[in-house]
Structures are given as structure tokens and as C-alpha cells.
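Page 42, continued from yesterday. The earlier attempt failed because a stray header line got pasted into the input along with the sequence. Redoing it now with the clean sequence only.
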Amino acid sequence: MQEIIDLRQSILEGRMSDALALLDELESMSRKSVIYTIESYLVRLVMHLIKADVERRMTNSWRHSIRDSAMQIKALNVMDNKRSPYIHAEEWASYIDEAFIQALSAASVEIADGKYSPEELERLMRRDRINAWSLDIMQQTHTRSKAALAAWVDEKLLSLE
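This time it went through. C-alpha cells are written below.
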């Protein structure tokens, strides 16, 4: 990465303000990358919840995907300082709303062999319920250990069937 080469050069030349600006840029790039990855897992989680709601069933594959997504989000959503998350508990609703658009499109391709458009699919599902399920799972990533989260998600998904 050019930024690292520039950072090294700035330090060697004693240009600390330039070095600090480059560090800020690198930190921002890293944060965006982690949040993008978290959002990708969130889309996958919401997509499977949409499928489960519309089809009124939960397959083992969907259950695994939802659990794995929650576990990956938990692992990723911790800054290097191990004290604060990238996405705080009170921010999940807006992230879920954004993920919902992509998840709806992806689910429309998979449900009933692509029979429904995203708009048609949205009329068939219970969005408030899916949002509540998603938010509940995301909240648990902040309060439970990995093992407890996996067990809780499995139990929660059994209750959704």
C-alpha cells in the first residue's frame, strides 16, 4: 500500500503532521473495511430470516447461516482496543434497515425459484417481525460470549419455526 510507504517516508523525514494524517487515513480505511464486512454478514442474516418468514419454515442450512453470520459479526465488531465496538448496540436498527434492501433482493431470487420480485416479496413477509428478530440477534452480540451466543441463536431460531 502506498499509504504505508508514504508513512514510513514521512517518519524518516520527520514530517510528523503528515505521518499522523496518513495514520488517520489508514485507520479510516480499516474501519470502513470492517464495517463493510459486518454489513455483508448482516445482509446474509436478514436474507435468511426473510426466507424463513415467507416460507414459514427454517432449514438447517439457513439456521447455520444465521448462526454463523451472528458469530462472525460478534468477532468482527470489536475494535483493536477490545473495549469498544465498531457498531454500537443502539445503532443496529439503521444498519438493519440498510441491509434489508439488499437482503430482500437476494431473497427474491431464492424464494420459490425467483417467482417473486422484491416488491411482491415485501408484501408477503412481516417486515416488523424480521426487523425485531434481526435486532434481537444483533443486540445479543454485545452481551453474550461466543458460545452463549451460538446456543442462544439456535434456541431463538427453534422458536421461530
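Notes: The longest helix spans residues 16-55.
Reminder to self: strip header lines before submitting.
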